[in-house]
Amino acid sequence: MKKIAIALGAVALSASAVHAAGIERSRLAYGTLFETGTYLEFGASRVSPSVSGNYSNPAFGTTTGSMAKDYTTLSFSFKHDINDKLAYGVFVNTPYGALSSYDSGLYSGLEAEWKSRQAAVLFKYKTSPNISVYGGLKAVRSQATIDIPNSLIAGGLVRAQAVGAAPGATPEQVAAGATAGAILTATGGTGLEYSAFGPADTRLGYIIGAAYEKPEIALRVALTYESGISHKFRTTETSIIPGIARTDITNIDLPESLTLDFQTGVAKDTLVFGSIRYAKWSVWEVRPTGYDALTSANITDFADNVTSFQLGVGRRINDQFSAFIRAGYEKSNSGASSRLSPINGLRSIGVGGSYTHENMKITAGLEYVKLGDAVDASGTRFAGNEAVGLGVSVGYRF
Predict the structure, then answer these.
(1) What per-residue string of b and e applies to 323-335 under the rule 16 or more CB within 10 Å gives b?
(2) Which of 107, 276, 324, 389: disulfide with 102, CB 3.0–4.6 Å?
(3) Which residue has better confidence, 340 or 116?
(4) Which domain holds residue 100?
């Protein structure tokens, strides 16, 4: 039973899954901390999403066209025992990302990109033969850009003007409405393309966790908390008023999360594994000061927190080959979805396996994801969308 745990224990994380929660792309491979001896692993995945929507208003056009682009994630993890009780791990991955580009209808020209890298150093201490605690620091470095076409900027200014003129408007809304009206009058509603660039910003967070193990039945249950972080981008906004640029600080929060990972042997050469993950994505909002001042709105946000589930079964075929199948689920939430991530829940199925030769282990997985239908604030409906992901990892034990 212990041998199958070695072969399949990290399968749930080593072969890529397609994540839809917020802009999450990959997770830290905590399972590496529980590998025996000194262990090194490299991982890569390629995800191909197909996401498009249909406009509710015929004046907007018919379809948005495919707005989500293919992307690649990379990961590295290393674990070493300091002594019988204390070990450390070093992890690198690409945790968050977005690459959206619309090419049809009202949203044509709306583009956004979020790049990130994460590094973490964790220590694990065995308090008893069955219980261990772990924790450490993480650093997330992100960069963001966005371009918004005239059609959407002009619409935002019209809304701001209407809010400012409405009974009961606050002084701030009145001021924003007056400014928006002046810009619309001066420009005739044209030449209002908007762009913002947030150069790379690095912030620190922390990770803590605890695990219970019973090796004779390949049982391990681990609970991990990751703190949220708050980026402070020195954002440059251009073309709110043609020819004028503005630079200011934009605060964007990334969510805290709580993850329960588990595995256990259920029969000879058979392992059940899975995870439950809660991420507080409702804190995420993109609201540059210039855009907010002129439109009284943010660029995008996520209305709901997200809980994700995974459950799988692994089977050792022989001393070298193991195979697995797993399913994933995220519940659909209420409220409007972001145009930059118009996905509301998911269902997934993945298959894969591991090949072990002496000290080397190769794991590969293929996953199909049915993305949940979503509706954005303009009533545009994104339905029938999907994604396919392929992940490969290579591990070596010293």
Answers:
(1) ebebebebeebee
(2) 107
(3) 116
(4) 2-130+256-286+301-397
Residue 218 lies in a domain: no
Q: Is residue 166 part of a domain?
A: no
Q: Are strands 300-301 and 257-267 parallel, antiparallel or unpaired?
A: unpaired
- In 3D, which of 78, 70, 33 has the Cα closest to residue 50? 70
Say how many C-beta atoms besides its own lie within 10 A of residue 83's C-beta: 7
Tell me how many domains the chain contains: 1
DSSP strands (E only) in 82-228: 86-93, 98-101, 111-126, 131-148, 194-214, 219-226
Q: 175: which 2 tokens? A: 């001021």
Where residue 222 falls among pLDDT bands split at 50, 70, 90? very high
- Percent of the chain with pLDDT strictly greater than 90: 62
φ, ψ at 357 (rounded to 5°): -135, 110
Find the CATH number of the domain harbouring 59: 2.40.160.60
pLDDT in tens, 40-71: 999 999 999 999 999 988 888 899 999 999 99
